[in-house]
Design a protein that fits this description.
The chain is an alpha/beta fold. The chain is 40% helix and 16% strand.
């Protein structure tokens, strides 16, 4: 199993700090997610059903012609490699590591490709996989370039797969409106922007023939009925979506400024997280953890990802921790 953010219980045991005393900045999940109302009792008593409004809500929200709800985008990440015979697959690096692992396990030849080398990779790969904006670097690519890569891959039966888990704050950059084209697969998630990671709801936008194959592979009832009801309501709540986008853009800028002011200028990021590459990432991760602040540590390349605090108390706590960190670094340099 690969390591992910959100392992608060593990951190609590390691550092001897109670779970409730942690400020978890490790996941990139909206800390002020969609407010879930009481779920109707009948959702618990009946099997999930297609046609309950979720597919229509997803088509409207993502501006996509054809969609398939899945048990979190992770379900699609693990299943898609099984829909092709062994091939050459290129994935952006650094990036969400579950993609490469799933394709390797299915017997494909996987190449990790830096963002600036992706155009070359298109000429050699059968499948190109991007996270957009990239997790953890926040890197983005113009729509016309993405569509050109898709055109070149599709011309020889290849795929462009785009994981848009962090795209909701900037929906105008999404490839979902083009996803009915053969060879283009877009993965979306309600875990990040909507803050519904525990519901495990993802949406695959793609050509209907591919969605039918994926549906057959995954089987019936992939998303439970309460999660379908919650996802439908969240996708239809335009007022909340608009307000949250505005707030997250402001908070992303605030986090960037705060880190910069304390000597940790981000090398990338998006509204939901900032990516920092300090000289001693592991030491900084540990120093913050000893104060009950959990960040996401990356080894290749060494880096930290900071998510958003959920309230002013969290912002003040992060600023105080960064201030202590800055003082400690200055003291060490003066020795």
């Amino acid at each position: 199993m690969l390591e992910h953010g959100g392992n608060v219980r593990q951190a609590a045991a390691r550092y001897g700090i109670a779970v409730e005393d942690w400020l978890d900045l490790s996941t990139g999940i909206n800390p002020n997610g969609w407010p879930v109302p009481p779920v109707p009792p009948e959702c618990w008593a009946r099997l999930p059903e297609d046609g309950d409004g979720l597919e229509a809500a997803a088509q409207g929200y993502y501006d996509a012609g054809h969609v398939l709800p899945v048990a979190g985008s992770q379900a699609a990440i693990q299943a898609l490699p099984r829909l092709r015979p062994p091939c050459r697959m290129a994935v952006i690096h650094p990036g969400y590591a579950e993609h490469a692992q799933a394709w390797r396990r299915a017997g494909h030849a996987v190449s990790l490709v830096a963002g600036e080398r992706l155009d070359d990779a298109v000429t050699r790969a059968d499948v190109l996989l991007l996270i957009h904006p990239n997790n953890p670097t926040g890197a983005r690519f113009p729509l016309d370039r993405l569509l050109d890569w898709h055109r070149r891959l599709a011309a020889r039966g290849g795929w462009l797969i785009v994981d848009e888990a962090f795209m909701d704050v900037t929906p105008g950059d999404s490839l979902c409106p083009f996803s009915a084209r053969e060879g283009l697969i877009v993965l979306r998630s309600l875990g990040k922007f909507f803050g519904l990671a525990g519901a495990r709801v993802g949406i695959v936008c793609a050509h209907p023939a591919l969605l039918a194959r994926l549906h057959t592979l995954l089987g019936p009832w992939t998303v439970n009925a309460p999660a379908r009801w919650i996802a439908t309501a969240a996708l239809n709540d335009r007022v909340w979506q608009t307000g949250s986008r505005q707030r997250l853009l402001a908070e992303g800028a605030r986090l960037h400024a705060l880190l910069t002011n304390h000597g940790l200028e981000p090398a990338g990021g998006c509204a939901l997280f900032q990516w920092v590459r300090p000289p001693h990432a592991q030491e900084i991760h540990g120093a913050l953890a000893r104060q009950g602040l959990l960040t996401r540590l990356f080894a290749d390349p060494p880096a930290l990802r900071f998510g958003l605090p959920g309230d002013e108390g969290g912002w003040n706590r992060l600023e105080a921790a960064l201030r202590r960190l800055t003082v400690g670094v200055a003291a060490e340099a003066a020795r």
